[in-house]
Amino acid sequence: MARINLLPWRENLRQERQRNFMIALGATAALAVLLVFLGSHLVERQIDGQEARNRYLENEIRALDRDIASIEQLEATRDNLLARKNVIERLQENRSMMVHLFNSLAQTVPEGIRLSSVKQAGEQLTIEGTTQSETRVSDYMRNIESAEWLHEPDLRIIEAIEEEDGGGREPFRFELRARVASPNAVEQEAAAAAMDEEA
Q: What domains appear along the chain, each with residue ranges and CATH number?
């Protein structure tokens, strides 16, 4: 006798496939949602970590800016102190320079020359006077060249004096310029000039 299945097995098979498809679809959707959540959580953690690093760097940059500002202030203070030190050293050097200058003036003036005026502007010294002859002025300039505190004599004027009575003892008037500098300063300038020539 033949067996005939009258149950709707095709319908049942289709419903089971549809149910399996929906389960797979739901599982895939749940997995996708889980992956999106985990990905966003991971990205948020990375963003939080980067923001923490950024805040740390900003704090360190602010601390460095404060250090730089204090260093600049210290450098300004150092420059100010160095400038004061240099002024004090120049004053100390110039304090004895007047004594040396007058001593050099007294030692370099040869017989037959009379000084009428000595003016100083910085390192420049202008000397005016009268002389018995032009050769005495040449002797005076040689004396200045060999002096320790007077340097670089430069004759500006030498001329005959016309007097009404004609009996003047020093018939010539002269004006010359010289440079006032300590021997140490002259040696330093010579050393610097030698270094410039070598370079």
A: 37-162+169-198 (3.30.1360.100)
